[in-house]
């Protein structure tokens, strides 16, 4: 699925379809990333992810004659989003995974993003967050905690700190995208963001890891999935939904990602799935309904 086809299909798709696709695609990145990291260093894997996705988007942009930013300011805004959403978020996330933080706990930490985004949206974007939404945000935070409450033990302080930086990257990047890049073309804008992220990841991969990689079929398939499905597909859907709705409402979908990640981890990684986790998933689903549903 290319960004061009995503953009044409998503703009005409029912509003209920986009969140469903986004949650599945974004959640898969935690599990696939965990599968790939035994075969590559985190920065090496990120460079592969970003570079392949950037080349795909460049080819699409040239083939479809997509419009490029006019002037240096729109381009600079896209660079900032690329540094925050792509480079900072995912380099920190993969570092945390490499340091032993589980996919579920990583999703838990990043899954608190809706609350911080709602706070930022009310202050910087002047969006009105209703009492119903604040209730849903609070309930979602509690539900996310239930999902992986039994897994937080054993994670290193350094790993948790790295994933917390990922939370900062996606929160700030989402707000910045909504404010300055809401109308940017997904093809050329995505290329600029991913190209910048590739430039950041390459020296880290070379200097810190010596471009550590074991070229197994698992690594090739995982890096391809992360490039096409996550860096292009999931991020494009996020920005499309931000364009069509309020930042706080779209961000609330992240509350469903830890539960979905836990289910995927159970199916793919053999991680445990307990009653508390299922209860947390139900709570987060109700919380998202409160945040995104129409007032009664």
UniProtKB/TrEMBL annotation:
SUPFAM superfamilies: Multidrug resistance efflux transporter EmrE (SSF103481)
Keywords: Membrane, Transmembrane, Transmembrane helix
Annotated membrane topology: Multi-pass membrane protein
Cellular localization per UniProt: Membrane
Pfam families named among the record's database cross-references: EamA
Species for this entry: Massilia timonae CCUG 45783
Domain EamA as annotated: residue spans: 20-148, 163-288
Record keyword Transmembrane present: yes
Name this protein carries in UniProt: EamA domain-containing protein
